[in-house]
């Protein structure tokens, strides 16, 4: 672990009068893997969307290497390119091939050389076992394959932070493993990651730190061993008891 790369400072998010996130503060170190867990509707996905600029915030600040990324200027949009996000719903372009889906943003947004981007795209696809699918279309892929393509698409932008929003929630059980293995490999490679998941065994295996969110605020945080073996709050104990969690 090294210096703080991302800092969320007293963030508040609300829709009309309904407060979704209230006074949430969190610091993320470079290379750290933080898993955010909590009951449905507690604000986990909204939290990631705020970090990536997909949702406006009402107060507080989000700093990437001590520079605020809250606002609407061209420079801030550029800074946000340094934060990649993978969604539950894949969001691949159905009319484009796998390789085109991976290379479109680096070519169009970052104005990078097509040959260079395609070479890197093929290397990334090979890394997740999908090089043979480069010319396939999303409709020809399984859910797990689509999600791995979505992960590669995020990686192709060279993000410094990766956000994962319940990326296995829409998958059949047999497809979950292949996606989680890809994420574990990314974590072991030193990527900075914030992961929202309901996969408790995976959370324990991949996380440097667990953040437990409930009712729009951080209730508890600690190492996986601390959280799963010795939860401090009654709310965390109740939450963990609701899972068939096997050590």
Provide a short characterization of the protein structure.
By secondary structure, this protein is α/β, with parallel strands linked by helices. The chain has helices at residues 44-51, 74-80, 98-108, 114-127, 143-155, 173-188, 200-206, 224-229, 234-241, and strands at residues 4-15, 18-29, 33-37, 59-64, 67-68, 83-86, 161-165, 192-196, 209-214, 217-222.
Counted beta strands:
10
Q: Classify the secondary structure makeup into a structural class.
A: alpha/beta
Rg, alpha carbons: 18 Å
Largest sheet: 6 strands, mixed
Strand content: 25-35%
Alpha-carbon distance between the termini? 26 Å
- Mean pLDDT equals 92
Q: Helical percent range? A: 25-40%
- The shape, in one word, is globular
């Amino acid at each position: 672990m090294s210096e703080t790369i991302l800092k969320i400072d007293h963030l508040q998010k609300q829709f009309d009068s309904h407060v979704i996130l209230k006074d949430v503060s969190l610091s993320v170190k470079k290379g750290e893997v933080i898993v955010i867990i909590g009951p449905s509707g507690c604000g986990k996905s909204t939290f990631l969307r705020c970090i990536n600029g997909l949702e406006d915030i009402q107060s507080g600040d989000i700093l990437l290497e001590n520079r605020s990324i809250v606002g609407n200027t061209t420079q801030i949009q550029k800074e946000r390119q340094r934060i990649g996000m993978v969604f539950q719903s894949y969001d691949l372009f159905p009319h484009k091939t796998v390789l085109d889906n991976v290379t479109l943003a680096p070519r169009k947004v970052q104005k990078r050389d097509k040959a260079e981007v395609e070479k890197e795209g093929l290397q990334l696809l090979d890394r997740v076992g999908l090089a043979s699918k480069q010319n396939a279309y999303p409709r020809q892929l399984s859910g797990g394959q689509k999600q791995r393509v979505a992960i590669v698409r995020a990686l192709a932008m060279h993000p410094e932070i990766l956000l994962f929003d319940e990326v296995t929630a829409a998958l059949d059980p047999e497809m979950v493993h292949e996606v989680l293995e890809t994420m574990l490999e990314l974590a072991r490679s030193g990527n900075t990651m914030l992961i929202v998941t309901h996969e408790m065994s995976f959370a324990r295996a991949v996380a440097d730190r667990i953040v437990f969110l409930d009712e729009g605020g951080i209730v508890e945080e600690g190492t996986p061993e601390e959280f799963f073996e010795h939860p401090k709050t009654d709310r965390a104990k109740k939450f963990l008891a609701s899972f068939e969690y096997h050590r």
